[in-house]
Amino acid sequence: MRMMVAAILAAWGVAIAPGAVGPAYAVPVDCPPNCDRIPDSAWPDPTAIPLYSTYRWPGLAGVAVTATTPRFRFEEACASPPVPADDPRGYAVAARALVPQPEGHWQLQVQVMHWRGETWRGGQLAATVFDEAVAALRGCQATSPLTSPSLTTDAPNRMAAVISGVLPGQAVLHEYLLVNPFNSTVVEMALWATTPPRVDWPLVPDPQILDAMAAPLCTAYIDSCR
Fold first, then answer.
1. Phi, psi of 181, deg, nearest 5
2. Is 219 exposed, middle or buried (0-12, 13-18, 19+ CB in 10 A)?
3. Contact 217, 113 (CB under 8 A)
4. Could you say which DSSP state residue 12 is in?
5. Mean local confidence (pLDDT), 95-101
6. Which of 56, 35, 36 is nearest to 46 (CA)?
7. Over 60: is that where the pLDDT of 105 sits?
8. pTM as predicted
């Protein structure tokens, strides 16, 4: 009987220590059963983020905060309109990890957004947010004429872009965005620095970075990857 109870508790992310009176909850808790926050396991490995050898990025779960109606970093660079009241981001479970650096160095922002409920519906919402973000990136120069955007990866469910300012001292932004409709999740990674940056940008293939963003979702959102 005790083994049966332990198996049930383990299936729900609860561990019983030998001799313990009550349950001890494992951290992080993946989703399901606990989908009201972004699981620690959903964040990319900091060693897979560009420039790790220089900046030694921290574990992102440790610096993440709740993001209410989150905006993508490129929306600031592109002077995009405010997030409308009916934007699906307004009711997503979302968190943002920001790692600031001194002026002239590369700043890092990573965001994870997840929609709870039926996957067919959450997947539609996530895909809508992704598609609208790509459209906004394509129109970046129209909303911010002093920028020069370039999409370096434009594939179903994933995108990468470089947005440069045309004036000296403006920022250059490397933006990565992906959606996984099977777990109703959008992930953004953005790194930017004023020009000329004090550390050269490394030659890292876009797919390598996007894969590092996508892989943790398979663990965080159980049985969601196909």
1. -65, -25
2. middle
3. no
4. T
5. 96
6. 56
7. yes
8. 0.85
